[in-house]
Amino acid sequence: MIRSLLIFLLIIINCISSQNKNPIVFVHGFMGWGEEEMGPYKYWGGWFDLVGELEKEGYTIFVASVGPVSSSWDRAIELYHQIKGGQIDYGKDHSEKYGLIQKPPEKNFKGLYPQWSEKNPLHFIGHSMGGQTVRMLDYLLNNVLQDSLGTIEKSKLLGKTNKGWIKSITTLSTPHNGTTISDFVNAGIPFLQNFIALAGVAGNSFYNFDLEQWGFKRFNEESWINYFKRMKQHSIWDSKNTVAWDSSIEGAKEINSLCVANPDVYYFSIANYKTKIDEDSGYHKPMKAMSNIIKVQARLMGRKKAYYSDGTSTDSTWYLNDGVVNTVSMYGPTTGSSGPDPITEFRQGDVVIPGQWYIMGNHEYDHSALIGHQMKKNEYSSLKKNLL
């Protein structure tokens, strides 16, 4: 599976960078983690080092680490400052609206790539909510924002336009139009606990929800379960400034109305699924090889409708899913107030154009398997020998 994904990523990058190799930024999804937080167990590849293999091919890669449960806005702000460097600034208006600490001192970065600019653009690859995060970043880079009094924000990101900084956006398993999971946050916990167990990392010591902007921090020696319970009880969840809202069909609709396709950016989406239709009921059921952790919710998603505020709902085209995200939502944004972004299937040999989404196939993997999880160490070793 990782060999296929690696080849797809190389095809995508080569489509738009034949003359040069701009650096690539990998952005994790909901409940994700950074490069070193799980020891040898990687978000991008599990026991297989996907980033390392791309680096061997001559590409410069940066692996971002943003808030695991934060909103796409907050994550985009964090992503910008993590790359560019400097004191984070969530914006005066946004911070006042949601009661945030606008500039939490704990979030001050050296910068992964301080020279990032129009002359030095970047490619972005985002898995799951990482894709939505990058689209929000593109919106923030290309718009001048004002506070509630009409004063232009003083932030270097929010207070001026930074056009041409993003070369391409590639999304994997991203809920562009939301997901029909009822409780997105609780749905992600078994994944994280399983990854912690696989990595052999003590949950008491490594994981942080990075919610300093909410004034929320982990206590010294606090157990993982107590830390999680406190996070779930925080007033953050009463607002729309969370991953839970952004991943809903109504929240995604709002984001799609803001983050329309940029005519200067190349877009690619990789979709996946691990359910099949039950001929007797017409609903979808999980395939046998799907991770046991998500089989129950995959079955629920395979028969559930979600409703928009105007009373309309999703239909049976949403039943196919990967256990976390509905496959139809992965192809590209379609629910914004301005209508769907241009979306087409990629065909080898076609000349790709910016401002249009290219679907790079629909692959039979569940949500985490697509990026290398569930692969055993011995499978990783044999695959590495035969890679490319």
Gross CATH architecture? 3-Layer(aba) Sandwich
Number of helices: 12
Counting helices, strands and paired strands, the structural category is alpha/beta
Regions with little confidence, pLDDT below 50 for 5+ residues: 382-388
Mean pLDDT: 87
Largest sheet: 7 strands, parallel
Helix-strand topology string: HEHEHEHEEHEHHHHHEEEHEEH
CATH topology: Rossmann fold
Q: How many domains, as an integer?
A: 1
Give the number of DSSP strands.
Answer: 11
- Fraction of residues in H or I helices: 25-40%
Q: Can you walk through the features of this model?
A:
With about 400 residues, the chain is an alpha/beta fold. The chain has one domain (about 1-275, about 325-385): 3-Layer(aba) Sandwich (Rossmann fold). It has helices spanning about 1-15, 50-55, 70-85, 90-100, 130-140, 185-200, 205, 225-235, 245, 250-260, 295-300, 375-385, and strands at about 25, 60-65, 85, 110, 120-125, 165-170, 265-270, 275, 285, 345, 355-365. Strands 2-1-5-6-7-11-10 form a seven-stranded parallel beta sheet, with helices on both faces. A two-stranded antiparallel ribbon has the order 3-4. A two-stranded antiparallel sheet has the order 8-9. A hairpin with a 6-residue loop joins strand 8 and strand 9. Helix 3 packs across helix 5. The longest helix is centred in the middle third of the chain and has 16 residues, at about 185-200.
List the helices and strands and how they pair.
Blueprint: H1 2-16, E1 24-27, H2 50-56, E2 61-63, H3 72-84, E3 86-87, H4 92-98, E4 108-109, E5 122-127, H5 129-141, E6 166-172, H6 184-199, H7 203-206, H8 224-233, H9 243-246, H10 249-258, E7 266-272, E8 275-277, E9 284-286, H11 295-301, E10 343-345, E11 357-363, H12 377-386
Parallel strand pairs: 1-2, 1-5, 5-6, 6-7, 7-11, 10-11
Antiparallel strand pairs: 3-4, 8-9
